[in-house]
Each structure stands twice: as C-alpha cells, then as structure tokens.
Write a structure and sequence with these properties.
Rossmann fold, binds adenosine-5'-triphosphate, 2 domains, 6 strands, alpha/beta, binds magnesium ion
Length: 315
C-alpha cells in the first residue's frame, strides 16, 4: 500500500522542482540557492538524508526481488555542481548488486562509429536494477551543441545534418525515453542547477585547497566561458523532453545538503509510487517450501556427523 502521508511529505521537496511539461519552461523561474526556507542545519539535513537513503535501500530490495520494473536516474550539470557527491550520498546504502553507475565521458572511436544513442542504450538498467547515468545521452544536445566540431567527429552523412538537427535529436531522445518507460523503466532526470557565482566559488576553493587540487581541471575553466550557451542548450533540452512519464527535476545546487535531499526525495517518491511488494509464492513454490522444511527437519532428527569440505584433516 502506498503511504499517502509519506508521499505528501516527499512532495514538499520535489514538487517545486519537478518539470513535466516544457511549454513554458524557463530556467529563470528556478533559483539555484533555493532551500524552501529550511535553514539546512547540516546535522538535520544529514539525518533526513540518511532516512531517505535507508528507505531507498529497502525499496531497492523489493525492486530487485520483483525483477520487473527498473529505474534510470540521469544526472546532468555544469562542472562542480556536485553530481558525484550527490550520487555517493543518495545511493550510500543501496545494495551494489542491484545498482549500476555509468559515467559517460568523451566517446571512444568505436562509439563514434555508431548512432548517437548506441552507447547509452547498452547501459540501460536491466529489470530489477537501478541504473545511474553520470552524464548521459543529453550530452549529445549539450556539449555537442555548444561545441559544433564534436558533431563533425560523429561521421554522420552530411545529407543527414540539417538546420533542425538539435530539434531532431531532442525528438529522438524524447521517443527513446517514451520507449523505455513503456518497457517499465522509470526515468528520472536531474539537472543540478548551480549558479554562475557558486561555480566560481567552488573552483577557487579547489585552487586554494591542496586536498582538492585533484578535482581541478583547466578544461572546466574553459567550459565556464560557454556558460550562456550551455544554459540555452539546457533550456531547450528540458523544454523538449520534460514529460509526466520522464520528468526533469531542476534541483537547486548552491546548497549541497539541500540538493541531496531533493534528489533522495524524488527517487523514494517515484519508487514508492510503484507500490511494490515482495512477490508472493505460487502454490507450486509453497509446496517446494514445505518439502524443504521437512527435509531440513528430518536432518536434525537423525543427525549424523559431517566433515567440512577442505577442513582440518587431522595432521
Ligand atoms: P568529474 O570532473 O567530476 O570527474 P565529469 O563528468 O566532469 O566528472 P570529466 O572527465 O571531467 O568528467 O569530463 C567528461 C567530459 O566528457 C565532459 O566535459 C563532457 O562534456 C564530455 N562528454 C560527455 N559526453 C560527451 C559526448 N557525447 N561527446 C563529447 N563530449 C562528451
Ligand atoms: Mg569534469
């Protein structure tokens, strides 16, 4: 049974950031510094988050046992928005056997020799699993749109590259997501909405703190110059692909504890809505269970000594 009180509580954190229709979407309406009036005392946020991830761990067990639905979590963001940390915290208690994380970087030569969705389609989570895309097929309408030469590297016949290429790609992505959701893949897409000012702060922090030098990349500073182009590309992407079945969450990212809380709430809410229960045993399986119980019981009654394979041989 879906707990209505739980869903209502989760909705407080998710509703303001959920985008299910692109028609009047604008990033201007979303404040990267939003915390819904919560002061976000670190300890309190952590406690809430821990509850959320514990919950998620329980739900994932049922998802796995059901072996039918799967969940695809797409994470997109500008550099330093906190994708990695969010994934780490939110999934901290989930059984690694039912969870797969894929980080998509610059495509390989083999990947460039295929259609643009090829490398992503192969990593869609199997039934019962949660799959995380750390960057995703959206890069194909983000970084590739901002840096046009990346499109040239994709070896597409020139006759197939028209002035509508980005709208066409977005339509292909929306169709791809429709297809997956109809197959029972629950898709949630997170855009971690970092402000230009906060990104600068985090970059400076990386430069000032020797423990964070490893995170610094000169390429990130170069990408920052294209900020406005990226914002335009994100807006177009969200407009074209936000739907009830595969919603976007424009998550405020200037406050890390709050970001994690919203993401955890969105995932728990989506899985909770599936109203999953452990599969009930069939009559046939009940018979097997009874027979097994009997056999184990009989074993105890006429207990004989068994040596452990590979155990001490007495020398
Ligand atoms: P982190 O910096 O936290 O390790 P990251 O996701 O930024 O994580 P990087 O190795 O820094 O990882 O960057 C990966 C790069 O690959 C990004 O700049 C991204 O834009 C680029 N990329 C991803 N997909 C594509 C693609 N399809 N075509 C071209 N570049 C891509
Ligand atoms: Mg990076």
């Amino acid at each position: 049974m879906v707990r209505k009180d739980i869903l209502d509580a989760l909705r407080t954190y998710t509703e303001p950031f959920r985008v299910t229709s692109g028609s009047d979407f604008s990033l201007k309406h979303f404040d990267p510094g939003e915390t819904l009036g919560l002061k976000m005392d670190k300890a309190e946020a952590l406690q809430l988050l821990q509850r959320g991830s514990k919950w998620l761990a329980m739900e994932q067990e049922v998802l796995y046992a059901q072996d039918s639905w799967s969940v695809l979590l797409v994470f997109q963001a500008m550099d330093a928005a906190g994708k990695d940390g969010t994934i780490k915290h939110v999934m901290s208690r989930v059984n690694p056997q039912g969870c797969d994380v894929f980080s998509f970087k610059q495509p390989s030569a083999e990947e460039l020799s295929h259609d643009f969705l090829w490398r992503y389609g192969r990593k869609v989570p199997q039934r019962g699993h949660i799959g995380i895309f750390n960057r995703s097929y959206y890069e194909e309408v983000l970084v590739v749109r901002v840096h046009r030469h990346l499109l040239d590297a994709q070896k597409i016949p020139p006759a197939r590259i028209g002035s509508n290429i980005w709208d066409e790609r977005l339509a292909d992505i929306a169709r791809f997501e429709d297809y997956l959701t109809r197959q029972g893949v629950v898709i949630l897409k997170f855009y971690l909405n970092l402000s230009y000012a906060e990104q600068k702060k985090r970059f400076v922090d990386r430069l000032d703190n020797p423990d964070k030098h490893w995170k610094f990349s000169a390429a990130d500073i170069r990408e920052r110059r294209y900020w406005d182009d990226y914002m335009h590309a994100y807006e177009e992407a969200i407009r074209a692909t936000a739907s009830e079945a595969a919603p976007w969450f424009v998550v405020p990212a200037d406050n890390k504890p709050f970001t994690r809380l919203v993401v955890a709430a969105a995932i728990v809410e989506a899985v909770e809505k599936l109203d999953l229960a452990y599969p009930k045993a069939t009559q046939e399986q009940m018979k097997d269970l009874a027979a097994a119980r009997e056999e184990l019981g009989a074993e105890a009654a006429n207990a004989t000594e068994h040596t452990q394979a590979g155990g001490d041989s007495g020398h």
